[in-house]
Design brief:
46% of the residues lie in helices and 28% in strands. It has 89 residues and is α+β, with helices and mostly antiparallel strands. The protein has one domain (2-88): RNA polymerase, RBP11-like subunit (Gyrase A, domain 2, 2-Layer Sandwich), CATH 3.30.1360.10. The mean pLDDT is 96.
Amino acid sequence: MELTVLEEKPTKLRLEVKGENHTLLNIVTEYAWEAKAKQASYMIKHPYLSQPELTVISANPKKTLSDAAQLVMDRAKEFRVGLERGLKK
């Protein structure tokens, strides 16, 4: 995955997220909201011709995205533990 900063302001960050799709970006935006974003959204202008763009608006958008990434990892770990327990039964 390659991230390119398209716009950076003190309260707004817009990134191009190369090589990803709705699956990851839905999760990231969901947890960005949980990490206190004022706005978290993404757009894919054309499914074959453009890369997704992720926009986060918050008091500190870099920290908000970092916190969101940590929440994603925490939840994935919880899922893995639950899955391993469930499959042992």
